Amino acid sequence: MIEQPFVEKYRPRHLQDVVGQEKIVGRLKKFVADSTMPHLIFAGPAGTGKTTSALALVRDIQRGKMKHHQTYLELNASDARGIDVIRTLVKEFAKTIVIEEIPFKVIILDEADHMTGAAQQALRRTMENYTHICRMILICNYSNQIILPIQSRCVVFRFSKLTEEDIRKRIEYVAEQEKITLTPSGLQALIYVANGDLRRAVNYLQASSSIDNTIQEEIVFKIAGRISPEDIRRMIHTALKGKLMEAKSILDTLTLEHGLSARNLLSQMHTEVYDMELEELIKMRIIRILSQIEYRLSRGATEKVQLNALLAKLCLLEG
Description:
Blueprint (H helix, E strand, L loop, with lengths): L5 H4 L12 H13 L4 E5 L6 H12 L10 E5 L6 H13 L9 E6 L6 H13 L4 E7 L7 H4 L2 E5 L5 H14 L3 E2 L1 H11 L3 H12 L4 E2 L1 H8 L4 H12 L3 H15 L3 H12 L6 H19 L4 H15 L2
Parallel strand pairs: 1-4, 1-5, 2-3, 3-4, 6-7
Helix pairs in contact: 2-3, 4-5, 7-8, 7-9, 8-9, 8-10, 9-10, 11-12, 11-13, 11-15, 12-15, 13-14, 14-15
């Protein structure tokens, strides 16, 4: 038997177990108490608990009688997103009479913002015609990709990135259950690379533990393909002092050791600039330079030349 992945193994089963999103979970619990709910849209960044909350809501509202393909149907709309799927699989499930003693059936459409326009139009009628026996939960990263007629038929819940404290607690819990040793720097590195995405943090924890059962900062950054924030800041500070060759030496070391693409490096620099002790005007100029370099890269410019140009522009800021 294949061992269950960390993310699935530690997925909360009920709403009271969901990490973070207290306001949203509180509103969902009211649906459970009333044994009813409208059609829902869960929107927000990846790894913030949208699918987990949907499954926990279905499990709580159907009170232990949850059976896949009988009382609820879960589809990933990025795989099955055409109009034929809506007209056949979804419609057939929605109109089937409920056998179990449950309030209604539920259809979960994950990554619904990847559905084609025609499929979303077909979904409108299914939502209207079978509301009395079937409700839908549409999960997406960008709710503006869902057509307005569907949005008007749903209550929208917007999930936010998880706080560092929420991620810290869950990572410590998983590490304790799996008997993994977390160093303070390793835990902080996991929180840093997760950037509010708990699924990413748990996956990096699993990958890091396959190398060493003691999670160190260096292992996490190596697995995540990220650079230590201190190294990024040291490179920026060196360039701002006008020391081009020294800054270039740091850049070459970082790119050779970590194999980062220029865009990943720019993204991390953009994140770090806001927390650096610099004048506001300097920060604004750095951000503008980063945007210019990123645009050039998007147009097919050479990475090495553009990164060196970036350092040169930073060196000229203090001049």
